[in-house]
Amino acid sequence: MNGATTYLLTLQWGIGDVLLSTATVRALKQSEPDCAIFYQTLVKGKHRLQYDPPGGEPGSGGAPDECLWHNPNIARIIDISEPASPMMLRRNLLYVRVGDKPLDRPIQAKMFDILGLPWNKHTRFDMDYYLQPHEAEDAAQIVPPGPLYCAVSPRCGGWPGKQWNDEGWAGIIASLLCEDWVPVILGGDRLQGQPWAQGINLSGALDIRASAAVLDRCQAMITLESTMSNLRFALRKPAVVVTCATSFGLKQIVWAPPELLTEVRNREWCEPCMWRGLHVAGKPRVPPGNIKDCPAGKSLRDVPPEEVWPVLLRHLEATR
What we know:
By secondary structure, the chain is of the alpha/beta class. Helices cover 31% and strands 17% of the residues. The chain has helices at 15-21, 23-31, 64-69, 105-115, 133-142, 166-178, 208-217, 227-235, 258-261, 271-275, 305-319, and strands spanning 5-12, 36-43, 46-52, 74-79, 148-153, 181-185, 200-201, 220-224, 240-243, 254-256.
C-alpha cells in the first residue's frame, strides 16, 4: 500500500453486530498491520463514530471529517456498512457495498472474498480486543483484586427471543453469592433494585471500553447472546451463554460455553418471542393471528434457573 492507509467502515444495528462482523478486521490487520479501523454504529437512532488510528490513543483520530473524508493518506476504503453512507460516495476511492443482511453467513463470506481472504463455515465472527493500560488501571479501581468475580449480563437489546426472565437471573445471582462469587452486573441498560443490587451493579454506567476492561478482570461470566457475549469472544474470556435460537434451521434450546456454541446446530426456533412486534433480520413481521403461545420449555422465559445453574457451576469450578 506504499504507506497509505486502508480504512474499514462498518455500520450495523449495534456494537454487538460490529463485533460479530469483525473477523474481517482481524484478517485485514494480519495482512495489513498499519490499516486503520473505523466503526460507525447506531445508538438510539443516531450515528456514533469511533475511530482508533494505528498506534494512537483511543479517540485521538479526530472528528470524522478530519480523520476520514478529507484525509489524502487513505488510499482504500472498504465499506461493509448498512445502509451505505452518502459521504463515502464523495471520495474518489474504492467503494465496496456488501449486501443487505450484515449477519447472514453468505454476506460475511463475501466480505472475506472482497479482501481475498479464506473463509469457511467455521470462521469466527469476532475480533481481538486489546486494552489500553489506563483502561486496565481504571477497572482495577472498580473491581479490586481479591474476590472471585462473575460478570452477569442480563440484557441483550431489543430481541425478545434472546431474553431470559428476571426470576432466573435472581436465582443465578443468589447462587453465585452462596458460592462466594461476587456478581458484576454489566450492560447498556440501567437496572435498579433487586436482584441487581446484590452485586456490583455497573449496568448503564460504563461505555464499551470500560465494560471490556471490567470484564477482563472477571474470572467467569454468564450472559445472553448479546454485545457482551461478543465482547467476551473478543477478549478470549471464558463464559456461559444462555441462548435460544434465532434461525429456522436450529432445533432445541441449548446452554453451552462459547467454545461449544459454534458447533451447536439443534435448537428450537421460538417464533412468538422472536417476531412479536419486531422487524428482525430484514424479514416481515409475523401477523398477530399467526402468533401462538410458547410451549413450556420452548422459550428462554420458561427456563428455570435450576436448569442453568449446573452449567454455570461447572464453569465456575473450572475457572477458580
